[in-house]
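Saturday, quiet lab. Running sequence design on the structure tokens for the scaffold JK sent over.
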């Protein structure tokens, strides 16, 4: 089933990438235990990557990047432990593998989850997050959000663009470490951040046609592959 990116172009991209020999693919593991992973897979195909759905340790081979979708962070954390994937996941990220996380993925990636200190997490991103900072599912909204895109290209550092940000039971980042760049803010709420090989957003780029974040992931994963 194709999602909103459904088009002849996406179908062509899927066919082209699936017909590329594995050693030539830029392979990005998408955590597929729960949540909105399919939309990320389609966005990744659209930018030229091969998404690899991750459900077990056996799936976690020959990867050049990672994607953590939105969904329910408590369930994803439990399933990561149950399937013995948590340590390997965190190890990949600590080892420099590029990762893009959205919403529940941002929560999982963070070092601190306020009020849920014992919640299972990857403990990689130097940030403290507040879950459900924007209310319940029925209070979901979309807003044009100015974001800094230091990752557009080397010369575009600090360049601003406006992003169609979709908020669904979104978290908010309330504190970040010195080494973390803030990419998007709404009033005083921090909504997207970057720390080295990690980019994370409280909103859902995979539900829009804007492929900026997935393009970043593809580019970084291609570079990472060259280092292996
Ligand atoms: N509030 C959810 C959580 O805490 C995240 C919501 C989402 O990913 N859309 O996991």
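Result came back. Writing it out in full:
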């Amino acid at each position: 089933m194709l999602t909103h990116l459904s088009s002849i172009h996406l179908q062509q991209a899927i066919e082209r990438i699936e017909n590329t020999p594995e050693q030539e693919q830029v392979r990005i593991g998408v955590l597929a235990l729960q949540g909105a992973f399919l939309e990320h897979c389609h966005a990744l195909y659209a930018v030229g990557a091969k998404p690899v759905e991750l459900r077990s340790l056996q799936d976690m081979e020959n990867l050049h990047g990672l994607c953590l979708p939105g969904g329910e962070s408590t369930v994803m954390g439990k399933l990561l432990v149950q399937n013995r994937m948590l340590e390997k996941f965190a190890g990949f990220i600590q080892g420099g593998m590029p990762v893009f996380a959205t919403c529940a993925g941002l929560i999982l990636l963070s070092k601190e989850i306020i009020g849920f200190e014992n919640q299972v997490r990857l403990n990689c991103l130097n940030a403290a997050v507040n879950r459900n900072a924007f209310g319940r599912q029925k209070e979901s909204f979309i807003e044009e959000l100015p974001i800094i895109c230091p990752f557009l290209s080397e010369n575009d550092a600090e360049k601003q663009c406006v992003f169609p940000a979709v908020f669904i039971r979104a978290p908010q980042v309330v504190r970040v470490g010195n080494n973390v760049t803030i990419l998007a803010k709404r009033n005083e709420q921090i909504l997207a951040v970057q720390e080295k090989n990690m980019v994370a957003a409280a909103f859902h780029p995979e539900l829009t046609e804007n492929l900026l974040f997935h393009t970043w992931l593809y580019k970084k994963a291609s570079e990472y592959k060259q280092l292996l």
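Notes for JK: The pocket of glutamine is lined by residues 70-73, 103-104, 107, 131-132, 168-169 (CB under 6 Å). The mean pLDDT is 92. Ask whether to fix the surface positions before the next round.
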